[in-house]
Amino acid sequence: MPSLRATITAGLACLAGSAAAAGEIEVRLLRGVCYPFQGAFPTNTGNAMVGELELRPKGTGTFLDDLPSRFTSILEQQRGVLPWYTMALMNDTMYAYTPISCRDEDGLNIRGETPRYVRINTARDATLVHDSYGHIPEPYAHYIDGVRQPGVYLGLAGETRWAWDKSRRGSTTPAALELWTPRLRIATDGNPQAAELRAGEVAGYLWAP
Question: Where does the record locate the signal sequence feature (predicted)?
Fold first, then answer.
């Protein structure tokens, strides 16, 4: 069975002819895990870290683009498997949030938590999860007509398009609080239609200014 990366690479190869068209976004993988982000600094081990990342939606054309970087974790359960936490962006600043950091050793993480990792889990709909399982989000730059655009965009295997959805809620989520869950629009071996936008989702990106 082909790997996730092989599947995506093949798909991107088919689109290569149109990706370079005028005005189109060209996606380029950046070197390093944390160094591409603003505020990165070297540790005494020579690796890089960022104390707190500002991760936000972009390109949705909605109020989501103006929300501050305030994520929380939603506990999710499914019969027969261990519970897991899905990361979601809150639309209100009056609630406590979960700061996301970056360390070269383990990528995006949440300090003081166990497990501390933040991953893209393609086995869980390619959502951003607070879990030990999944892929380390990769940093990308966007170029238009050869000019790099501001910021760093999160993605995986060359894909940086995300879908934002507010259907998930925690058991203790206040009624007035909206939780927006990001899902990477990436086709996997198990679900080749996962790259398509679904009903109720808002298309955009997940970036760090």
Answer: 1-21
